[in-house]
Specification:
The structure is a single chain. Helices cover about 55% and strands about 5% of the residues. The chain is α/β, with parallel strands linked by helices.
Length: about 750
């Protein structure tokens, strides 16, 4: 269908991760919302108050979606607690190809996400049941002057642990509530697909209903609650076992373990597509979880013959070690499967880290979860034993009790310190070794842009050269991530020591023989690791508090979440909700309505260009002839095509261009640290695409526009780098050219 002659042309601007206000996007102080709501809305200049800074005769509209991640202080602050879950969910989207034979990689990532829920539950169990109920309350000096703990000593061990078990259950409910609370921003828009979503093994951004993840999230949420509750039940029953005299205890323990195994099996299967099974299976799982948990708590509350022993809660040390072993095996398997998939990479561009993005981010999620849990356990232990965390070299006095965290946390602390030091060294080395290459590139850029420079502009030329060199640090981040991945892999070697009950200080003591200095040094290094990871986690907590109090800090935190919560929650249901689940369908609906009236140019800046490209892939065929795309400061090819080759690789970007009949312009600068060309060759490199239409997409802008001061100005033009683009004359010319091409296509359908 051709565009109606005389229809209103609209330039629809989509901002990036910084969450700019509608007034800033439109370059006008008085705006009004014309669609959407306070979480995500479409804005135009209020009639009668002037015009926007756009091309003549073209209406300018802004889509502001930043409040989906940064709008609510409570939502933004609480998201920091969900960081490990967010990273676990993100890992699957970095896989090298979307084709997942047998759904193997997806199943492995979901299993690893299940271990994150187990780690969270075991951390709370370690604080409540292990440190407080089992290790502290039985000792007089530990509970002295602590009325909030001393009353527990009057209770037998079984009822005491049953009562304390309510805290991990409450923690699971809180994590659930955080995700539900932050998802309320999406209730104003219903993205229900017109047809069922295709299998995850062959999905793509053009799949109908790709962004609708509520069905999968709901299903996974029931499973993870079952995993958390089953972990708690098994930990409680292992502690209150009376030596097998009552067969009900072992029977319930087997039921709790079977619940965890059953949930693990469900994680290996895709979410049910049948409406009947989608209702029945969650209810069945919820019923089983409720019954097993209620029986476990009742059994513990009625068991009064538990004999407290020194050391860890029975079974807790083994559970922590087993969890570490399971995570290590899963990470190795994910790396092997990912490498096998990367060999058949069809994207046309080398993926980041040779396709190892999935195991790398998976390892990062495990590391962050370990840092969170170790910090929680160590800081509580430090508080309970009044600042003297024991170890095998420096035990507590017998009257206080051992108050020992599990050995897995000791190894995590030592590994965290080692990883931090090596990654810091890798970062410094990377910057130093790449300096000459980046400076040579910058020299070629400034020589091309400013061949004749007056002597008085030499200092400014040097500043521009340094800016260009610094902007290409983005491509040099690989070695730091490789170093982290190698350290994470080497850390798996501690699994065997953990399983046989040898900690860092014990290993040092055995290796040094009769000399205790090595063991003491290992103890101090481990303590240093504990404090380092504790300070990092405490820093995140402070950042979360500041984001609650400060709108500016909240926006900075939201930058990370804009990047990490772009993808649907198909792995971990407790991750922050996917804002694109609302933004992309909402943009597609609005663009379709506007295109029915006239030409529409979707203008996406920075991360907004990713939303814009995803929107094009979801538009109906009837709207595409009236739509064009303008991207500026876009990381689509420079970052996203390499991080997410399966979903935003060069083959997907070519599909975007083909859908629009190549009505696409991309503006980029060499001084931009984020944006870059989409298809064009870059300073002598081979073109990413040999299609002539694709090669006409990229338009390079010189930055700054000049080195010297214009006679009509008082200062030289600024170096604009990543923002703004819409004030450049080439931007307005690109908008006008795209509108003309839409109209030309309407006249010659």
């Amino acid at each position: 269908m051709a565009t109606a002659p005389g229809g209103e042309a609209v330039e629809l601007r989509v901002h990036g991760v910084y969450g700019a206000s509608a007034e800033t996007i439109l370059d006008h102080p008085i705006v009004v919302r014309v669609a959407g709501d306070r979480h995500a809305g479409f804005y135009r200049i209020r009639p009668g108050t002037g015009t926007a800074g756009g091309a003549a005769g073209i209406a300018v509209e802004a889509y502001r979606w930043g409040a989906l991640t940064a709008g609510a202080a409570v939502r933004t602050a609480s998201m920091l607690l969900l960081l490990p879950f967010m990273l676990g969910n993100l890992a699957i989207w970095l896989r090298p190809t979307s084709t997942d034979r047998l759904g193997l990689l997806g199943a492995l990532c979901r299993l690893l996400a299940g271990t994150l829920t187990v780690a969270f539950t075991l951390a709370v169990v370690g604080v409540t049941l292990n440190l407080v109920g089992w290790q502290c309350v039985p000792y007089v000096e530990c509970r002295a002057d602590r009325p909030y703990l001393s009353w527990l000593s009057a209770m037998p061990m079984g009822p005491r642990l049953a009562l304390l078990s309510l805290i991990p259950l409450l923690a699971l409910r809180v994590i659930w509530a955080i995700g539900a609370r932050s998802a309320r921003a999406f209730e104003g828009f219903d993205p229900t697909p017109a047809e069922p979503k295709s299998s995850e093994r062959t999905e793509s951004l053009s799949t109908p209903g790709f962004w609708y993840d509520e069905r999968v999230t709901f299903w996974l949420r029931q499973i993870h609650v079952g995993i958390g509750a089953g972990t708690l039940d098994a930990s409680l029953l292992a502690a209150v076992s009376d030596g097998g005299r009552n067969p009900l205890g072992p029977l319930l323990f087997d039921a709790a373990a079977a619940l965890v195994v059953f949930c693990a099996v469900l994680l290996c299967l895709p979410a049910p597509t049948s409406q009947a099974w989608a209702r029945r299976l969650p209810r069945l799982l919820w019923g089983i979880t409720t019954v097993v948990t209620a029986l476990s708590l009742s059994y513990a509350a009625l068991t009064r013959s538990v004999r407290p022993t020194a050391g860890q809660l029975p079974g807790y040390e083994g559970a922590a070690a087993g969890l570490t072993a399971a995570q290590g095996v899963l990470l190795v398997t994910i790396a092997i499967v990912t490498l096998a998939r990367a060999r058949a990479n069809p994207t046309g561009v080398a993926p980041f880290l040779r396709g190892l993005g999935t195991p790398l981010v998976a390892a990062l999620s495990v590391s962050v979860a370990a840092a969170f849990t170790a910090t929680l356990v160590f800081r509580v232990a430090d508080h309970l034993d009044r600042g003297n965390i024991p170890d095998p070299i420096r035990p507590n006095p017998p009257a206080i009790g051992p108050l020992e965290p599990p050995l897995a946390h000791w190894w995590a602390a030592l590994a965290g310190l080692t990883a931090l030091l090596i990654v810091a060294v890798a970062a410094v080395a990377t910057l130093l070794l790449s300096r000459r290459r980046r400076r040579a590139l910058a020299e070629r850029v400034v020589a091309h842009d400013f061949p004749h420079v007056p002597p008085h502009a030499a200092r400014r030329l040097q500043a521009v050269r340094e800016t260009v060199a610094k902007s290409h640090v983005t491509e040099e981040l690989g070695p730091m991530l490789v170093a982290f991945f190698l350290i994470s892999s080497l850390g798996l070697a501690t699994i065997a020591l953990d399983l046989i009950g040898i900690g860092p200080t014990q290993l040092a003591a055995q290796l040094s023989g009769t000399h205790g200095a090595t063991a003491v040094l290992a103890a101090y290094l481990t303590d240093a690791g504990i404090w380092v990871i504790s300070l990092l986690v405490i820093g995140l907590v402070i950042l979360g508090y500041r984001s609650y109090r400060s709108a500016e800090t909240r926006r900075l935190v939201a930058v990370l979440w804009d990047l990490g919560t772009f993808w649907p929650r198909t792995v971990h249901p407790f991750a922050p909700p996917c804002y694109a689940a609302r933004a992309v369908p909402e943009l597609a609906k609005r663009v379709t309505a506007l295109a029915a009236q006239g030409p529409v140019v979707i203008s996406g800046h920075s991360h907004g260009s990713v939303l814009a490209a995803a929107t094009v892939l979801q538009l109906p065929p009837t709207a595409l002839p009236r739509v064009a795309l303008l991207t500026h400061g876009s990381p689509l090819s420079r970052i996203y095509a390499r991080l997410y080759p399966a979903y935003l690789g060069q083959h997907v970007l070519r599909e975007v261009g083909e859908r629009l009949d190549w009505r696409w312009h991309n503006l980029w600068r060499d001084t931009d640290p984020i944006g870059g060309p989409i298809f064009d060759h870059h300073h002598g490199a081979q073109p990413l695409c040999d299609n002539f239409s694709a090669s006409s997409v990229d338009i390079r802008l010189r930055d700054p526009r000049a080195l010297t001061i214009d006679p009509a100005d008082t200062v030289p033009p600024p170096v604009e780098r990543h923002w703004p683009y819409h004030t450049d004359p080439h931007y307005q010319a690109a908008v006008r050219d795209l509108v003309d091409r839409i109209n030309l296509g309407a006249e010659n359908p």
